């Protein structure tokens, strides 16, 4: 026990002496949360539109006004032919061409059907899809408005007066995030990113650094026990990562007003298990590599895959089947699920038990590997 | 029983034999110089005796403990200073001493007393709160030497301790070694410098993993009809 205390004291002194490390510990959470939570959003605002209004009627102008007023669309150029508008698309001045053909209003009044053409820059299919969704819902609203407008002047007026148009209204209730606030959804996930990067990188770099400077051999020639060494190497980074989590939760609460519904003791308890898994992984990397460069490269490669496939940015449900199966071995995905459920839905332990056991198994495997690889006596 | 007993000790790396059936023994308080060209197997032999590397075959005991079965027991009774630097550069002199003292299980009070005494002996009391990075190489080496003795080991292993230091510091370093041996501590030292070989009680010269010569400097010079240890070494290495 005393030996571990001496190791802890030494590790904390070394962290405190390292200016770059201090900057990472205190600046990274703020930057990640403030920048990522605000930047990582699926809302697509102010889509630049190249407008080809060949109708120039009241109805076409009303439609364009309505689109602009929504804030989701912004007419950046007006063209007089589709070909000209396509140029704007090619030059990336606009990402959407709205083509209103001649006699749009006339057709609408005469036949009840008007035709519009939308051309998307669909390099990013998701963005194009989201934009189309906005457009469709604005158009549906517009449809209702002009129907009412036309009916008052139309010869169908009489018939309509006796049988009012039947409508089914859907009034959705958005549970757990009533304002559909994207930041509320993103912040718990970004907190996971934060503790993961801090924990994994610090532990992955640590032992290999002692290998590089040669002090590991001096430690190996002392009677220090394996378990003392491993605890002395894991505990400092575990504490730092938990501190990061607390720090991040405070920012989430104060700056983003994220509801922290769940039991915070449960959050920290689960974070403890998760960190054992990730720190064990970092330590294992540290034992199989010889230089900090190698350790960094491996840690980085694995982290990128884990994070991109964690459901943080893209929903796991929309991944292909094989990729969904891969998330079963992704600890980051489990912890993001846990954080979202516990923080946003106020889930209790039983609601995240499966994730808890998966992380526990992960922690056991990683720590066993790491301890097994660390050898005081080379063979 | 001698403090170090080695019998037919061998270490292979794949098909390469780094240490080839070496046998010798060292008595308490003796200074044994371990000489050899680069790659002759000196460091490999020392790593086996300090419990850092498992031997392939043969027998060896240090302080009466077996290198195969009791490496951790050996570690409590030996001090080790490697050619690679062993102190933490981002910690101060006092913090380094406290850390290694703590790892060896010294009490806080003992650590404090030893720190004061050690710094006074090395004339480094003023540097107590300086970071190691700020110290010149010679001071660091002397400090690393003293830290290796913190827990009063019975055997001190030095792996090329004077590499890269100036002649004056080397002399001071050898004064420290003599003082240590005078207290009954066995010193096992590898070196490249032939003048240092003359300071040892006995010298072993390794060539290609084998011990080709072992004896007092005077006896070796007679045996090889040479004027200096340098000549002895060159004859053996060329043979």
Summarize the structure.
The complex is a heterodimer of chains A (379) and B (239). Chain A contains 15 helices and four strands.
SSE order and pairing:
The complex is a heterodimer of chains A (379) and B (239).
Chain A lengths: L1 H16 L1 H21 L7 E7 L4 H12 L3 E6 L3 H9 L5 E5 L3 H8 L5 E4 L4 H29 L3 H6 L19 H32 L1 H6 L5 H29 L9 H25 L3 H17 L12 H6 L4 H15 L7 H21 L6
Parallel strand pairs in A: 1-2, 1-3
Antiparallel strand pairs in A: 3-4
Chain B lengths: L3 E10 L2 E11 L4 E6 L5 H8 L7 E6 L2 E2 L4 H7 E4 L11 H11 L4 H15 L14 H12 L6 E5 L7 H16 L3 E6 L2 H4 L4 E6 L2 E6 L1 H7 L5 H10 L1
Parallel strand pairs in B: 3-8, 3-9, 6-7, 7-8
Antiparallel strand pairs in B: 1-2, 1-4, 4-5, 9-10
| CA(first)-CA(last) distance of chain B | 34 Å
Identify the biggest protein-protein contact and residues per side: A-B, 27 and 31 residues
The residue ranges of chain B in which pLDDT falls below 50 over 5 or more consecutive positions are: none
Number of domains of chain B: 1
Q: What is the radius of gyration of chain A?
A: 29 Å
Largest sheet strand order of chain B: 6-7-8-3-9-10
Q: Which parts of chain A are unreliable, with pLDDT below 50 for 5 consecutive residues or more?
A: none
* CATH fold naming of chain B: Rossmann fold
Strand order of the largest sheet of chain A: 2-1-3-4
Number of helices of chain B: 9
**What's the helix-strand series of chain A?**
HHEHEHEHEHHHHHHHHHH
* Helix fraction bin of chain B: 25-40%
Name the average pLDDT of chain B: 92
């Amino acid at each position: 026990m005393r030996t571990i205390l001496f190791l802890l004291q030494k590790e904390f002194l070394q962290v405190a002496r390292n200016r770059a490390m201090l900057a990472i510990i205190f600046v990274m959470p703020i930057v990640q949360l403030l920048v990522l939570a605000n930047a990582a959003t699926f809302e697509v605002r102010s889509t630049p539109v190249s407008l080809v209004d060949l109708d120039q009627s009241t109805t076409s102008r009303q439609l364009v006004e309505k689109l602009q007023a929504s804030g989701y669309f912004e007419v950046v150029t007006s063209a007089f032919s589709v070909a000209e508008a396509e140029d704007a698309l090619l030059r990336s001045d606009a990402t959407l061409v709205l083509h209103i053909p001649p006699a749009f209003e006339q057709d609408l009044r005469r036949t009840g059907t008007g035709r519009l053409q939308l051309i998307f820059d669909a390099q990013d299919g998701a963005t194009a899809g989201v934009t189309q969704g906005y457009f469709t819902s604005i158009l549906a609203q517009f449809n209702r408005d002009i129907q009412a407008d036309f009916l008052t002047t139309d010869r169908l007026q009489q018939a309509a007066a006796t049988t009012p148009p039947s409508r089914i209204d859907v009034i959705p209730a958005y549970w757990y995030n009533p304002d559909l606030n994207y930041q509320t959804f993103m912040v718990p996930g970004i907190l996971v990113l934060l503790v993961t990067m801090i924990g994994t990188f610090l532990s992955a770099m640590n032992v290999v650094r002692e290998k590089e400077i040669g002090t590991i051999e001096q430690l190996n020639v002392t009677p220090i026990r394996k378990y003392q060494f491993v605890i002395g190497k894991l505990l400092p980074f575990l504490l730092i990562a938990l501190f990061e989590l607390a720090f991040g939760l405070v920012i989430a609460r104060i700056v983003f007003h994220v509801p922290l519904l769940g039991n915070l003791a449960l959050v920290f308890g689960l974070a403890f298990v998760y960190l054992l898994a990730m720190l064990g992984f970092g330590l294992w990397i540290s034992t199989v590599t010889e230089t900090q460069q190698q350790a960094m490269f491996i840690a980085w490669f694995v982290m990128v895959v884990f994070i991109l496939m964690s459901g943080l940015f893209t929903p796991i449900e929309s991944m292909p089947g094989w990729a969904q199966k891969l998330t079963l071995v992704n600890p980051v995905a489990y912890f993001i699920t846990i954080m979202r459920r516990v923080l946003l839905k106020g889930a209790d332990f039983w609601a995240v038990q499966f994730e808890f056991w998966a992380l526990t198994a992960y922690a056991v495997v990683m720590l066993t590997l790491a301890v097994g690889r660390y050898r005081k006596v080379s063979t | 029983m001698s403090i170090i007993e080695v019998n037919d000790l061998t270490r292979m790396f794949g098909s390469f034999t780094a240490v080839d059936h070496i046998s010798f023994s060292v008595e308490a308080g003796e200074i044994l110089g371990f000489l050899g060209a680069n790659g002759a197997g000196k460091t490999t032999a020392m790593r086996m005796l300090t419990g850092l590397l498992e031997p392939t075959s043969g027998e060896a005991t240090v302080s009466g403990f077996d290198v195969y079965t009791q490496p951790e027991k050996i570690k409590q009774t030996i001090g080790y200073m490697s050619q690679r630097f062993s102190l933490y550069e981002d910690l101060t002199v006092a913090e380094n001493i406290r850390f290694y003292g703590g790892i060896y299980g010294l009490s806080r009070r003992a650590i404090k007393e030893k720190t004061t005494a050690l710094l006074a002996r090395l004339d480094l009391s003023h540097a107590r709160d300086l970071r190691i990075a700020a110290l010149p190489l010679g001071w660091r080496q002397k400090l690393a030497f003293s830290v290796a003795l913190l827990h009063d080991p019975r055997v001190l292993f030095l792996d090329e301790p004077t590499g890269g230091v100036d002649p004056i510091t080397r002399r001071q370093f050898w004064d420290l070694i003599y003082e240590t041996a005078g207290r009954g501590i066995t010193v096992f030292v590898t070196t490249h410098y032939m003048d240092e070989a003359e300071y040892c009680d006995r010298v072993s010269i390794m060539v290609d993993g084998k011990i080709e010569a072992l004896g007092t400097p005077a006896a070796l010079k007679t045996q090889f009809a040479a004027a200096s240890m340098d000549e002895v070494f060159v004859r053996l290495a060329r043979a």
